[in-house]
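Give me structure tokens for this 379-residue protein.
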Amino acid sequence: MYRVPLNAVKPGMKVAKGIYTSDGQILINAGVTLKPRYIEHLRKLGIAAIYVEDNLAADVVADDIVDDATRLEATKTVREFFLKTQQSGNGSSIMTDRKLQQTVNDIIDDLLSKKDLMVNLQDIRTMDDYTFGHSVNVCILALVTGIALGFSRTQLNHLGMGALMHDIGKLKIPDSIMNKPGKLTEEEFAIMQQHPKFGFEILRRQDDVSLLSAHMALEHHERFDGAGYPNQLAKDDIHLFSRICSVADVFDAVTADRVYRKAFAPHEAYELLAASGGSHFDYKVVSVFLRNIAAYPVGTWVELNTGEIGIVIDTKPGFATRPKIRLEFWPGEVREPIFPPQEINLAAELDRLIVRVVPREEIEQITSPILKVGGNRVK
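Here you go.
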């Protein structure tokens, strides 16, 4: 399967990964063949991209780092909590069912059950549901980092809760600022910069949320070099959990489609963070974080310095930029298929490296002369 922007989706494509609203309602199931009215419905809901089945590499499938059921339940729980907080006005008496703690525990259990923690998928969410999906993603990414750092179960619980709730203060920011498609004015940005303080005030009153988790809401926009907000903290004055949350927050934010810009590709976000380690972000945290992020997710078509084109089929932790690739096309002005395809591991073949991500349109142009009717490769 591969991720395709909605404006490039065509009738007849098959959905590879089901799409849900934040309250758990199914928008479209996996396996459904898209019709024009389905595509238009997704567009009206603000879906920017979807995963579709890949007739060029049907066997190449990227698994989510957590189970779909766990992610869906987590998003529903966050949505309920945010709505109850908004309705209560001050966040009181809304944590008694401990659903958020259970959500964090479920995510931790899911992650600890995995042998290799490697982030390969970008979450699909509607524009209106951005905050809920973002909260869950930041929680997952922070916990992956905490596990890699060897945190105890108690530490993971505090980290996960703080990451899940890091943006709760945005409930007090006017929608006109939150959803503004253009650049914020200085006055609007000053208001936006208050959301960490608002979040801290909400969470510190919760009996079921530790003060440590509440401080993650307060500090997630602080920067290692002191250039952040709201208190311009720097280096070790920012708690380690908050430093982790800030990296996870930025990565998920830049890889998501927003009303004011398109999403960064994973390798672009990877390079952005790698270049910021030691300045905006703690170098140690960035290094550990990026060990578990696939710069080229499974299903990405790439060209090597040797000229071959292939598809990424696996990436191991610690080798984010050197995945396992199935070579499909020889170098040359006319691309001839490699048959049978050859699998190579860039972690072992150090003289080979990825020089670019090949656009899907280019792959389709290469393969169109060598495909049978029905989409099967000619042998």
